[in-house]
Amino acid sequence: MSLDSIPEQSATSDITPPTIGPLQRHTHTYDLMRQCIHCGFCLPTCPTYAVLGVEMDSPRGRIYQMQAVAEGRLGITDDFVDHMYCCVGCRACETACPSGVQFGKLIEAAREQIQLTPTETSNHTEIEASNLNGASSETAPKSTPLVLQLLRRFFFDVMLPSRPILSLVFAGLKLYQRSGLQAFAHRSGIFDAINALPTPFQGKLKVPEALMDKAKGDLIPEQLPEITPALGQKRYRVGFISGCIMDQVFHDINEATIRVLTANGCEVITPPQQSCCGALHVHGGEAEHGRELARHNIEVFEQYNCDAIIINSAGCGSTIKEYGHLLRDDPAYAQRAKAFSEKVKDISEFLVGIELNQSMGELPLTVAYHDACHLVHGQKIKQQPRQLLKSIPGLRLVDLKEADWCCGSAGIYNITNQEMANELLERKMKHIAATRASVIATGNPGCMMQIAMGARERGLQIEVMHPIQLLDNAYRAGGTYTLTTQDTTTEKNQQRTLLVGIGIGLLIGILLLRRRKH
């Protein structure tokens, strides 16, 4: 499909423009679209255009399609859905755009519009980037298999917003890995047999499993303390957003973040009643649910009167900083959301902006830094993490070619669009191997999992770490603080494993009973 293949609007058009949703004419989103002058500066920066070479899979091509939908020249066909969900959402085009087009807001609006169309013609949860040869379809959109619709509803409506259910899901994964069941499933061929079954997931189960190579930490992470006092003189009172995936997979990074903040005079507030930030919802077109989560988090953190709200996950931080935009049409929350977003700081952004505690020991490491897309392009934070790494004695920071090029993670893109994500990972790993670094540092959990998987698959002896982990190690090496040994007795672990097993069994039983009733 080319730009010329979309007809100009005419009085005889039989396509009705949207009457609800963000892709309407004479709206804020429509005004954002019209800022694009189709100059093409974005083309060399777009990962999907670099791989496919298809104009409709470039930022300006996607904007042209959005505008055509808003004006009634194009319907929401499978072709339109494919192009919108093929985008990794890296926002590199924003950095390159001379007109300041806010493409991240536009692609999220397009996906929300797709989800607002009737169920029988949309509700796509998995749009594969399988058209690597540039093939496309002009047919009306097909319905999504029921199992994928149910999975989408469970993921967005049940699992992410609920810490207990999210914990049970990840505990089940950890039990699968640690009990020997995973090894048995591979040795016996059961895993390959299930992966080959003619289901919507056929041939697609290996990547999700490979991303979670070895789930670390307790089966169910302990709740972070609500109030952690500053070490020494208190200079700031900061709130901390612990996140969903970050807290389940990288709970140790959250703990390191709190330690580093306290070492820099911060009293850290981690409200136990905080919820998922809504980033994955907004990126995936579930914006209304994202707004509900945003309202909840605003109400929670307003109670604590913090000087700043700290986040250590790039993708989450990008969305939280845009709560003001997300709730712009909500009269009860618009101003509150704007005030909240203005307080949000990435951990590296905050630490560079204060007088940093320099009591660090040496870390004789060679480190390369990968820019998480939503940190460098979404939040415009590029130098701050590098400044922190350079402040660590003994650490040598080396350049990574195309450091700000997407690694293919992009939220859950590496699961839903596996072929394209693989192409991007291959490009990233070639540059990483060339650095000969012993550590790759990056500030987003998705990037960490994706790059670590790439290193394992290629046999590269590289450790993937968050910059805050390196800073935490430096403070410990310098004697600023030491870690206390936690109670990890066999009895305690066995009791927790038993409780988790019972919980998972009950959850599965409830789901099966509900299915039988329907």
From TrEMBL:
Would the keyword Lipoprotein turn up in this protein's UniProt record? no
Q: Which InterPro entries match?
A: 4Fe4S_Fe-S-bd, 4Fe4S_Fe_S_CS, Cys_rich_dom, Helical_ferredxn
The transmembrane residues are 496-513
Feature: compositional bias, Polar residues? 7-16
Instruction: Reply yes or no: does the keyword Ribonucleoprotein apply.
Output: no
Q: Name one Pfam family in it.
A: CCG
Where in this chain does the record put each 4Fe-4S ferredoxin-type domain? 26-57, 77-101
GO molecular function: any one? metal ion binding
Question: What keywords tag this UniProt record?
Answer: 4Fe-4S, Iron, Iron-sulfur, Membrane, Metal-binding, Repeat, Transmembrane, Transmembrane helix
Locate the region Disordered: 1-22
Gene3D superfamilies (UniProt xref): Alpha-helical ferredoxin
Question: What name is this protein filed under?
Answer: Glycolate oxidase iron-sulfur subunit
